[in-house]
Design brief:
Number of domains: 2
Low-confidence stretches: 30-35
Shape: rod-shaped
Oligomer: single chain
Radius of gyration: 38 Å
CATH architecture of the largest domain: 2-Layer Sandwich
Strand order of the largest sheet: 1-2-3
Order of helices and strands: HHEEHE
CATH class of the largest domain: Alpha Beta
CATH topology of the largest domain: Histidine-containing Protein, Chain: A
Number of helices: 3
Distance between the termini: 112 Å
Structural class: alpha+beta
Length: about 120
Amino acid sequence: MKIKILTVLSLAAFLCLGACRSTSNTNANVTTTTVNTNTTTMATPMATMAPAADAATQSNVKSALDKAGITGVMVDATTTEITLRGSVAKGKLAEAIRIANERGGGKRVNNQLVEAK
């Protein structure tokens, strides 16, 4: 009886050691492959593009401001917004912004105007 138990235990130990040895070799190969795969699949970040200038909107807003008698305003327009810079006469600031909103085609108005004193 003792011989059977010793035989079974020694056989189990032998199989366990053999299984552990082959698994460690497999893991080492997998780790090396994973590292190589990760270094070759890096994504390249894409640059964002700035909005393009919109000359038609710019001239439309500028001519409407001139027609209303509002001078001293620089108008810059892109495909996303209209920027107003400069100085306007007292009481004309709100009118300048209103004109830019009406003639801007729904674009955001970035107001950087200063009202003269």
